[in-house]
Amino acid sequence: MIIWHTTPETVAFLVVMVLLLSSSATRLPMNMKDRVFHYTLVISLIVIAYNISVDILYQLIPSQPQWVYLLAYTVLYLIYPMALNLLLWYVILFVGETAPKEHTHKQKEVAAIHMGLYALYALIILLNITTGWVFSVDIEGEIVRQRLNSLPYILSTLQIASVIFYIVSERTYSDKLTRHLYTWLPVLILPILVLQTLFPDVYFAGNALAIALLSVYLNLQTRKYSLDTLTHLPNRTFFQGTISRSVRRKRPISILLISLDDFKTINDTFSLRKGDALLRALSDYLRQTFPVAQSYRFSGDELAMTVPGTTIHKKALQVMERFSSPWEIEGISAALHATFLEITFPCTHTQQEDPLIVLDYALRIAKTKYKGKHLVFDSEVLRTIRERSMIVSSLNRSLSENSLRIVYQPIVDIAQGKPIMYEALLRMHDSQLGDVRPGEFIPIAEEIGIIDQLTLYVVRRISETLCELIREGKEAPAIAINFSASHFSNREFIRELLSLIQSYAIPQGKIYFEITEHTFSTLPYSEIIETMNSFLAYGIHFNLDDFGMGYSNFSHLLNLPFRYIKIDKSLLWNRPSNISNFRVLSSMTSFLKEIGYDIILEGVETSEQAKTIRSMKYPHAQGFYFSRPLEQEDFLRTYTPNTHFPLD
Can you give the pTM of this predicted structure? Predict the structure, then answer.
């Protein structure tokens, strides 16, 4: 029969068994650190099981020779510290993972101390068989503690102390989670050791080991979900939790967000491995230069730093100064460029807003309007954020209520004064914001992921309009619709769009999609041509919009099946009117005509501009001079194929 004093060891056995099963469930390959922890669990399980077995043997078969008990207890004394040694070695490897390579000697020194202490201890335990310095066994098989019986506890204390000293010496390179765990871990074990001293007949050593293993395992799981594996910095989730707690407790916290600009170029130039090394170098710089602050990996190429109170500004300037010099790592020298956002929570400007939403919007503004610069959050930034939030709400509401308007602006054949097609333009009105420009709400629609719904909405409304004109016996005009770059990579959306157009039985050649030059800078050429060809097969054509904005790759342009190329108005009208501008534009137009493209000049607004394009013999033009965009009702009422837009 098992006596009650083995119960704590049995509980410890079950705890370690669960940990072993949980850690073994993963199929991922293990590095040296992971293998050491796995071996620690296995040895610990064997040690605790052996301890329980010895006690069961004593309880069930008490009449054993005295030497049998002496041998059994000697083995027990020898193997328990082995589990502790493995566990502490795991801790050393864990901490050393983020330390510089040149600090490897510290690991070896601590390991040498452990091995030396254990060798001395093992020698004393083996000599104990004849000397009885540590323990002896009486005639009934009971263990009798002698003068050096506290030796295992002294050994454990010295080993733990050496590890704590190592952690402290490498504190600059380790994260706060690791430091906190291994600082209070001995505090958890100490009460167990005290209980073992007070109640010598109850076995608590296994419990101390199980608690240590459980603590380390839980830390491992916490790191898995809270720390970034590349930089060993707390991740975005941990960062958001920190901000939320500070705001909830009304404790000011200052934040510096560092968003690396065009970091993909670094990866493409030097390789992904070198790019990762640069990210680690940046994270190490933040961690080592600002030990009082807490650094985070906010996203792939974005890092963050927080400090209590409102003292981030000087640190931000110091970080910006560091970015003025190249980063040298693994034999390369790379110039990193970044956008910096500085913000403090809570502040008088953001009392009513969710801090995480404010932070997300502020970072978007910084990256779009202040790229490569330093943005300090203020009331003006908050006004922009609030306005953007209102646009998001209004846009979603308008889309669900079908209250977005479509207006039609003609594209005119200069020689005949007749429309060759109409461009469909989306309009949004908000009761508080008034009319919201497409340049404001279209980028937001792309950011929040509803641009596909907007395009489907426009195509559906256009298709209904074309069908209505056909029912009235009119020849339906061609309609040009803006097409987002994000559509090209969404195969499901393309299938849905083609299905929608087919369902209305729109005649071929009546729908044109307009894409901008910027599309070429964001998508691979093969993806663009594949999508265009899938639409051309259904009689849907493409126009190139905003030509001349600086993104065009002529080798791509020559091979893409555009029907019309629209010359951006800034190429002529926003420049001083001189003969050299006209010659450049005339030469460009002639070249494009020769390779088979029709040309449309945008932004014709005055009679002087109209005379200019007529003198330059432009074939087609678009602008307020001919007609402002027509509301749906006006377009349906006035449209005929013979509508005339004179140049005089």
Answer: 0.59
